[in-house]
Every structure is written in C-alpha cells, then in structure tokens.
Amino acid sequence: MGPESVANRYARVALTVIEQLGLLIIAVATVVAGYQEVMVMVDNARVTLADLLLMFLFLEVLTMVGLYYRSGKLPVRFPLYIALIALARYIILDVKEITELRMLAVAGAILLIAVAVLIIRFGHVRFPYVEDDTRPELPGNGDFGRE
Prior knowledge:
The protein is an all-alpha fold. 74% of the residues lie in helices and 0% in strands. The protein has 4 helices and no strands. It has helices at residues 3-44, 49-71, 77-93, 100-126. α1 packs antiparallel against α2, α2 (49-71) runs antiparallel to α3 (77-93) and α3 packs antiparallel against α4 (100-126).
C-alpha cells in the first residue's frame, strides 16, 4: 500500500464526509423552509394551490435526500419531478402577469420534461442495469406504469 493509495483513501473519506454534511444541511434547510411555509399558511388562515405545490417541492427534496442516504444513488427522475412541480407553481403564481408566449414556453417545457421522465423510466425498465437486480427494492423500481 503506497502513499498514493493512502492519499486516495483520505480524499474519498473527506469527500464522503463533505457529501454527508451537505445532504444533512439540505435536509435540515428543507425541513426549516417547510415549517416556515406552514407557519405562513397558519398565519394567513388559508392554504392555496401554490402553497401545496411548494410543500410538494419540499417533500420531493426530502425524498431525494432520503433516497440518496439509503441507496447511495440519485435517479435523474427526481430533479425532473421537482422541475415539473416548480414550473406548475410558476404558472399558478404568475398566471395574471404571464404573457401568452411565455405560457406556451413553460407549458412546452413541462411537456418536454414529462416526456423525458417517460423515456428515462421506460429505458430503465426495458434496459435495466445489471447492478439493479442486486439492490434492495426502492419505490419506483417496479414495472413500467406501476408507479
């Protein structure tokens, strides 16, 4: 075992610690932001669709962090789901000020992301990685269309 392998091991351990710390910070910040949003809804004594979509964004981020903690992998679908919800929330919040062209552009972006999720999901089921057969069952690892 030479000095290069010790340096590589040290670098991997350092990166793992930084990665875990970053995930913990993201999770805590998401929980705090969710709590603040709930307090805003309580203060207003009103829940809007935009509030609910924001809560879904927070839940998706927490799901992403939890999935990464459990499996060490992050499916590309989760950030795409977050983008879909964020774009839907954008349309809902700015519906009065948004121009027709911008509305079409955002709707087109939503459609493109949805198609990308469908293609990725289909490809994952139709052409699974060899290592996928050995990992524990996670939500969304079933047959195409069962999610």
